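Before the break, one more example. Copy the sequence into your notebook; we will annotate it together after we see the structure.
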Amino acid sequence: MPQAKIGVIGGSGLYDIPGIENIEQVNVDTPFGKPSDAITVGRLGGVGMAFLPRHGRGHTILPTEIPVRANIYALKSLGVEHIIAVNACGSFKEDFKPGDLLIPDQLIDRTKGRVSSFFGNGIVAHIIFAQPFCPDLSHILYETGKEVGASIHQHGTYLVMEGPVFSTRAESLLHKSWGADVIGMTVSPEAKLAREAEICYASIAGVTDYDCWHETDEPIPIDVIIQTLRRNTDTIREIIKRAVTRIHDKRDCDCANALRTAIVTAPEAITPEIKKRLDLIIGKYVK
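Here is what the structure looks like once it is written out:
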């Protein structure tokens, strides 16, 4: 299969990246099933890149239905070491206006029905996740966003809700009281699985609305939210196009060795079947 060092997972409103050359559509089978769609592999600015639409082309997959383990595993199998995720979100802060972008550095996971680990069923690992987003990759995205003139914010907490229904006003006010900055449905378990796979992961979160805590405004209907997403899309594409050329091959962050001390199952207790299934993830630590 073709190889790529950088992966982009496109969210609502971002289903392709113009400018990718030497394109090949790759269908990947994984031990966790098929990913959301075929992966577009090519070169962007001379850099090997893989693009995967999170919800599938035509937006056919609910946030709760996304085959996240298959998505991350498939990108890992193509050689991806950095993932730029594009995520939509509602804002809990007056200063984070619809149309703004945020590069979050923290998350609160309020999902409840999603498998969030490659491990289990005979093998146990506990990754450190105090910094859920790669700080190095996040910094590159923020600086690039400023350069292209985006209204972009650095640092913030992304609360991940289960969905697909939006929050009640009571829930929105509760989440705001916790100090969350934005809310969306797709950062987790992506970020957790990327860390287990030792892939650097950062998000470009596009603010679409003020959620429903903002009692002076009526809740915004989905068609207006989609219009805001589309206005952000060209800016996000430009950030990605420039950022991919600035990502270093050498990784100095902790993401690259997240499993070094995380696997607690005794090697002799790990069955050959588990070793085969997770070789791509654990192979450099478990022989």
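The chain has one domain: 6-113+129-252. The mean pLDDT is 93. Try to locate both features in your own notes.
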